[in-house]
Design goal:
heterodimer; A: 218 residues; alpha+beta; Aminopeptidase; seven-stranded mixed β-sheet; globular; B: 85 residues; mainly alpha; Non-ribosomal Peptide Synthetase Peptidyl Carrier Protein, Chain A
Protein backbone atom coordinates (compact mmCIF):
# COMPACT_ATOMS: atom_id res chain seq x y z
CA UNK A 1 0.00 0.00 0.00
CA UNK A 2 2.83 2.38 0.76
CA UNK A 3 4.83 1.54 -2.31
CA UNK A 4 3.22 4.34 -4.29
CA UNK A 5 5.29 7.35 -5.24
CA UNK A 6 3.52 10.72 -5.34
CA UNK A 7 4.91 13.28 -7.76
CA UNK A 8 3.92 16.19 -9.97
CA UNK A 9 2.36 15.23 -13.28
CA UNK A 10 4.43 15.69 -16.44
CA UNK A 11 3.64 15.86 -20.15
CA UNK A 12 4.19 12.09 -20.33
CA UNK A 13 1.24 11.61 -17.95
CA UNK A 14 -1.23 13.46 -20.21
CA UNK A 15 -2.99 10.28 -21.46
CA UNK A 16 -3.75 9.30 -17.83
CA UNK A 17 -4.82 12.86 -16.99
CA UNK A 18 -7.24 12.85 -19.93
CA UNK A 19 -8.71 9.62 -18.51
CA UNK A 20 -8.83 11.34 -15.11
CA UNK A 21 -10.72 14.36 -16.48
CA UNK A 22 -13.20 12.21 -18.42
CA UNK A 23 -13.92 9.83 -15.52
CA UNK A 24 -14.08 12.62 -12.93
CA UNK A 25 -16.43 14.64 -15.15
CA UNK A 26 -18.73 11.64 -15.42
CA UNK A 27 -18.81 11.57 -11.63
CA UNK A 28 -19.91 7.96 -11.38
CA UNK A 29 -22.54 8.35 -14.13
CA UNK A 30 -22.42 7.69 -17.87
CA UNK A 31 -22.96 11.38 -18.70
CA UNK A 32 -19.89 13.18 -19.97
CA UNK A 33 -20.44 16.92 -20.17
CA UNK A 34 -18.08 17.29 -23.14
CA UNK A 35 -20.43 14.98 -25.07
CA UNK A 36 -23.78 16.21 -23.71
CA UNK A 37 -23.02 19.95 -23.72
CA UNK A 38 -20.69 20.25 -26.70
CA UNK A 39 -21.69 17.16 -28.69
CA UNK A 40 -18.10 15.87 -28.85
CA UNK A 41 -17.31 12.21 -29.40
CA UNK A 42 -14.94 10.46 -26.97
CA UNK A 43 -12.12 10.79 -29.51
CA UNK A 44 -12.82 14.52 -30.01
CA UNK A 45 -12.98 15.02 -26.22
CA UNK A 46 -9.69 13.17 -25.88
CA UNK A 47 -8.00 15.30 -28.57
CA UNK A 48 -9.38 18.53 -27.07
CA UNK A 49 -8.19 17.69 -23.54
CA UNK A 50 -4.74 16.60 -24.77
CA UNK A 51 -4.35 19.92 -26.55
CA UNK A 52 -5.50 21.92 -23.51
CA UNK A 53 -3.14 20.10 -21.10
CA UNK A 54 -0.23 20.68 -23.48
CA UNK A 55 -0.85 24.45 -23.31
CA UNK A 56 0.61 24.38 -19.76
CA UNK A 57 -1.57 27.28 -18.60
CA UNK A 58 -1.64 27.30 -14.78
CA UNK A 59 -4.41 27.91 -12.28
CA UNK A 60 -7.45 25.81 -13.16
CA UNK A 61 -8.74 22.27 -13.25
CA UNK A 62 -7.48 21.75 -16.82
CA UNK A 63 -3.90 22.83 -15.99
CA UNK A 64 -1.18 20.20 -16.18
CA UNK A 65 0.59 21.87 -13.25
CA UNK A 66 -2.46 21.32 -11.02
CA UNK A 67 -2.06 17.56 -10.95
CA UNK A 68 -0.20 15.24 -8.61
CA UNK A 69 -0.13 11.57 -9.56
CA UNK A 70 0.44 8.36 -7.59
CA UNK A 71 2.66 5.87 -9.36
CA UNK A 72 3.64 2.28 -8.62
CA UNK A 73 6.05 0.11 -10.61
CA UNK A 74 5.97 2.65 -13.45
CA UNK A 75 2.17 2.61 -13.68
CA UNK A 76 0.06 5.67 -12.87
CA UNK A 77 -2.62 4.67 -10.39
CA UNK A 78 -4.37 7.93 -9.47
CA UNK A 79 -4.40 11.67 -10.00
CA UNK A 80 -5.73 14.64 -8.04
CA UNK A 81 -5.82 18.16 -9.42
CA UNK A 82 -5.70 21.19 -7.11
CA UNK A 83 -4.78 24.86 -7.35
CA UNK A 84 -4.62 27.94 -5.17
CA UNK A 85 -7.54 30.03 -6.45
CA UNK A 86 -6.44 33.39 -7.79
CA UNK A 87 -2.70 32.65 -7.53
CA UNK A 88 -2.29 33.52 -11.22
CA UNK A 89 -4.45 36.66 -10.84
CA UNK A 90 -7.14 35.20 -13.10
CA UNK A 91 -10.10 33.22 -11.74
CA UNK A 92 -10.05 29.49 -12.50
CA UNK A 93 -13.53 29.90 -13.99
CA UNK A 94 -12.24 32.36 -16.60
CA UNK A 95 -9.07 30.34 -17.19
CA UNK A 96 -10.98 27.13 -17.91
CA UNK A 97 -13.43 29.00 -20.16
CA UNK A 98 -10.55 30.60 -22.08
CA UNK A 99 -8.79 27.27 -22.59
CA UNK A 100 -11.99 25.75 -23.96
CA UNK A 101 -12.73 28.83 -26.10
CA UNK A 102 -9.34 28.53 -27.81
CA UNK A 103 -9.71 24.79 -28.36
CA UNK A 104 -13.32 24.07 -29.27
CA UNK A 105 -14.77 24.88 -32.71
CA UNK A 106 -17.35 27.68 -32.97
CA UNK A 107 -20.24 25.38 -33.94
CA UNK A 108 -20.04 23.32 -30.72
CA UNK A 109 -19.93 26.50 -28.64
CA UNK A 110 -23.07 27.77 -30.41
CA UNK A 111 -24.78 24.51 -29.42
CA UNK A 112 -23.69 24.99 -25.80
CA UNK A 113 -24.94 28.58 -25.68
CA UNK A 114 -28.55 27.35 -25.92
CA UNK A 115 -28.28 25.55 -22.56
CA UNK A 116 -25.88 27.77 -20.63
CA UNK A 117 -28.67 29.12 -18.39
CA UNK A 118 -29.52 25.65 -17.09
CA UNK A 119 -25.86 24.71 -16.57
CA UNK A 120 -25.26 28.05 -14.82
CA UNK A 121 -27.73 27.16 -12.07
CA UNK A 122 -25.14 24.76 -10.61
CA UNK A 123 -22.34 27.33 -10.57
CA UNK A 124 -20.68 27.83 -7.18
CA UNK A 125 -18.28 30.75 -6.94
CA UNK A 126 -14.71 29.58 -6.29
CA UNK A 127 -13.28 31.28 -3.20
CA UNK A 128 -10.06 33.24 -3.64
CA UNK A 129 -6.97 32.26 -1.61
CA UNK A 130 -8.41 28.80 -0.96
CA UNK A 131 -6.89 25.53 -2.16
CA UNK A 132 -9.39 24.06 -4.59
CA UNK A 133 -9.49 20.32 -5.13
CA UNK A 134 -10.50 19.82 -8.74
CA UNK A 135 -10.62 16.53 -10.60
CA UNK A 136 -9.98 13.28 -8.74
CA UNK A 137 -9.59 9.78 -10.17
CA UNK A 138 -8.25 6.45 -8.97
CA UNK A 139 -7.80 3.69 -11.52
CA UNK A 140 -10.12 0.74 -10.67
CA UNK A 141 -7.22 -1.69 -10.02
CA UNK A 142 -5.79 0.62 -7.36
CA UNK A 143 -8.90 1.51 -5.38
CA UNK A 144 -8.99 0.81 -1.64
CA UNK A 145 -5.44 2.06 -1.05
CA UNK A 146 -6.35 5.51 0.31
CA UNK A 147 -4.74 7.14 -2.72
CA UNK A 148 -7.22 10.04 -2.79
CA UNK A 149 -6.42 10.88 0.84
CA UNK A 150 -2.67 10.62 0.21
CA UNK A 151 -2.85 12.81 -2.88
CA UNK A 152 -5.03 15.44 -1.19
CA UNK A 153 -2.61 15.51 1.75
CA UNK A 154 0.28 15.95 -0.69
CA UNK A 155 -1.58 18.76 -2.48
CA UNK A 156 -2.12 20.55 0.86
CA UNK A 157 1.58 20.22 1.73
CA UNK A 158 2.57 21.50 -1.71
CA UNK A 159 0.28 24.52 -1.36
CA UNK A 160 1.39 25.27 2.20
CA UNK A 161 4.98 25.40 1.01
CA UNK A 162 3.88 28.19 -1.37
CA UNK A 163 1.40 29.89 0.95
CA UNK A 164 1.92 29.21 4.67
CA UNK A 165 -1.20 31.22 5.54
CA UNK A 166 -3.44 28.64 3.81
CA UNK A 167 -6.33 27.78 6.11
CA UNK A 168 -9.01 26.26 3.88
CA UNK A 169 -9.41 23.59 1.24
CA UNK A 170 -12.62 23.37 -0.81
CA UNK A 171 -14.04 20.71 -3.07
CA UNK A 172 -17.22 20.75 -5.18
CA UNK A 173 -18.96 17.45 -5.80
CA UNK A 174 -22.22 16.38 -7.41
CA UNK A 175 -24.80 15.59 -4.72
CA UNK A 176 -25.51 12.17 -6.16
CA UNK A 177 -21.87 11.06 -6.04
CA UNK A 178 -22.11 9.46 -2.60
CA UNK A 179 -18.88 7.41 -2.86
CA UNK A 180 -16.90 10.60 -3.53
CA UNK A 181 -18.66 12.47 -0.71
CA UNK A 182 -17.78 9.63 1.69
CA UNK A 183 -14.12 9.76 0.64
CA UNK A 184 -14.01 13.53 1.23
CA UNK A 185 -15.71 13.12 4.61
CA UNK A 186 -13.06 10.52 5.49
CA UNK A 187 -10.45 13.18 4.62
CA UNK A 188 -12.14 15.56 7.09
CA UNK A 189 -14.21 17.66 4.66
CA UNK A 190 -17.57 18.95 5.85
CA UNK A 191 -20.51 20.17 3.75
CA UNK A 192 -20.87 23.96 3.86
CA UNK A 193 -23.20 24.66 0.95
CA UNK A 194 -25.36 23.22 -1.79
CA UNK A 195 -26.99 24.43 -5.00
CA UNK A 196 -29.78 22.61 -6.79
CA UNK A 197 -31.00 23.06 -10.35
CA UNK A 198 -34.66 24.02 -10.76
CA UNK A 199 -35.24 21.57 -13.60
CA UNK A 200 -34.65 17.88 -14.29
CA UNK A 201 -33.49 18.92 -17.76
CA UNK A 202 -30.05 19.36 -16.19
CA UNK A 203 -29.81 15.57 -16.05
CA UNK A 204 -29.64 15.52 -19.86
CA UNK A 205 -26.28 17.26 -19.57
CA UNK A 206 -24.68 16.75 -16.17
CA UNK A 207 -24.31 13.77 -13.79
CA UNK A 208 -26.44 15.25 -11.03
CA UNK A 209 -29.09 17.83 -10.20
CA UNK A 210 -27.27 19.33 -7.22
CA UNK A 211 -23.74 20.33 -6.33
CA UNK A 212 -22.27 20.32 -2.84
CA UNK A 213 -19.47 22.53 -1.54
CA UNK A 214 -17.27 20.90 1.12
CA UNK A 215 -14.58 22.48 3.27
CA UNK A 216 -11.55 21.22 5.15
CA UNK A 217 -9.73 23.42 7.64
CA UNK A 218 -5.94 23.09 7.62
CA UNK B 1 -11.30 53.34 -22.86
CA UNK B 2 -12.49 53.06 -26.49
CA UNK B 3 -16.24 53.77 -26.50
CA UNK B 4 -16.87 51.46 -29.46
CA UNK B 5 -15.16 48.59 -27.65
CA UNK B 6 -17.05 49.23 -24.43
CA UNK B 7 -20.35 49.53 -26.32
CA UNK B 8 -19.71 46.26 -28.14
CA UNK B 9 -18.69 44.42 -24.98
CA UNK B 10 -21.71 45.77 -23.11
CA UNK B 11 -24.00 44.42 -25.83
CA UNK B 12 -22.28 41.04 -25.72
CA UNK B 13 -22.22 40.76 -21.91
CA UNK B 14 -25.90 41.71 -21.62
CA UNK B 15 -26.80 39.00 -24.14
CA UNK B 16 -24.52 36.24 -22.76
CA UNK B 17 -25.33 36.81 -19.09
CA UNK B 18 -29.00 37.56 -19.83
CA UNK B 19 -28.84 40.80 -17.86
CA UNK B 20 -30.31 43.62 -20.01
CA UNK B 21 -29.29 46.33 -17.52
CA UNK B 22 -25.72 45.17 -16.93
CA UNK B 23 -23.26 48.07 -16.72
CA UNK B 24 -19.64 47.13 -17.34
CA UNK B 25 -16.79 48.55 -15.30
CA UNK B 26 -13.09 48.04 -15.90
CA UNK B 27 -12.64 46.22 -12.59
CA UNK B 28 -15.55 43.84 -13.17
CA UNK B 29 -14.56 40.16 -13.25
CA UNK B 30 -16.19 36.74 -13.07
CA UNK B 31 -16.49 37.19 -9.30
CA UNK B 32 -18.93 40.08 -9.80
CA UNK B 33 -21.46 38.46 -12.13
CA UNK B 34 -23.44 35.57 -10.71
CA UNK B 35 -23.92 33.79 -14.03
CA UNK B 36 -20.25 34.09 -15.10
CA UNK B 37 -19.19 30.43 -15.02
CA UNK B 38 -16.68 28.76 -17.34
CA UNK B 39 -19.32 27.93 -19.97
CA UNK B 40 -20.63 31.51 -20.04
CA UNK B 41 -17.01 32.74 -20.23
CA UNK B 42 -16.19 30.65 -23.27
CA UNK B 43 -19.44 31.71 -25.00
CA UNK B 44 -18.62 35.34 -24.21
CA UNK B 45 -15.09 35.00 -25.66
CA UNK B 46 -16.43 33.49 -28.90
CA UNK B 47 -19.06 36.26 -29.14
CA UNK B 48 -16.32 38.88 -28.73
CA UNK B 49 -14.25 37.24 -31.48
CA UNK B 50 -17.24 37.15 -33.83
CA UNK B 51 -18.40 40.72 -33.05
CA UNK B 52 -14.99 42.35 -33.50
CA UNK B 53 -13.72 39.96 -36.22
CA UNK B 54 -10.67 39.03 -34.16
CA UNK B 55 -9.16 35.80 -32.91
CA UNK B 56 -7.57 35.42 -29.47
CA UNK B 57 -4.51 33.39 -28.64
CA UNK B 58 -4.62 31.44 -25.39
CA UNK B 59 -1.68 33.38 -23.89
CA UNK B 60 -3.61 36.64 -24.45
CA UNK B 61 -6.70 35.30 -22.68
CA UNK B 62 -4.68 33.77 -19.84
CA UNK B 63 -3.66 37.22 -18.62
CA UNK B 64 -7.13 38.79 -18.65
CA UNK B 65 -8.21 39.40 -15.05
CA UNK B 66 -11.14 41.74 -15.63
CA UNK B 67 -13.18 43.70 -18.17
CA UNK B 68 -10.49 46.43 -18.33
CA UNK B 69 -7.89 43.85 -19.42
CA UNK B 70 -10.31 42.48 -22.02
CA UNK B 71 -10.85 45.97 -23.46
CA UNK B 72 -7.06 46.47 -23.70
CA UNK B 73 -6.54 43.19 -25.54
CA UNK B 74 -9.44 43.85 -27.94
CA UNK B 75 -8.24 47.39 -28.65
CA UNK B 76 -4.69 46.15 -29.23
CA UNK B 77 -5.88 43.52 -31.71
CA UNK B 78 -8.10 46.03 -33.54
CA UNK B 79 -5.16 48.43 -33.76
CA UNK B 80 -2.91 45.68 -35.17
CA UNK B 81 -5.59 44.85 -37.73
CA UNK B 82 -5.96 48.44 -38.87
CA UNK B 83 -2.15 48.84 -39.13
CA UNK B 84 -1.96 45.72 -41.30
CA UNK B 85 -4.56 46.97 -43.80
Amino acid sequence: MNSYTIRRATIQDIPFLVETIIEAEKSGSERLSYATIFGLSIQETNDCLQKILQEEIDGCELSLSSFLVAERHGEIAAAVGAWLEGEEGVSSTSMKGSLLACTLPLEVIKRASTISNIIGELHIEVARGVLQIGLVYVSPDHRGNNLTQQLIKAQIERSKSKMDTLTEVHVQVFGNNLPAIRVYEKCGFKKIGEVECSTDAILDYLPGRSKILMKLGV
Amino acid sequence: MENKTLDGLTEIFRKVFAEPGLVLTERMSSRDVEKWDSLAHLIMIKEVETYFHISFKIRELASIQNVGDLICVVDSKLKDQSNNH
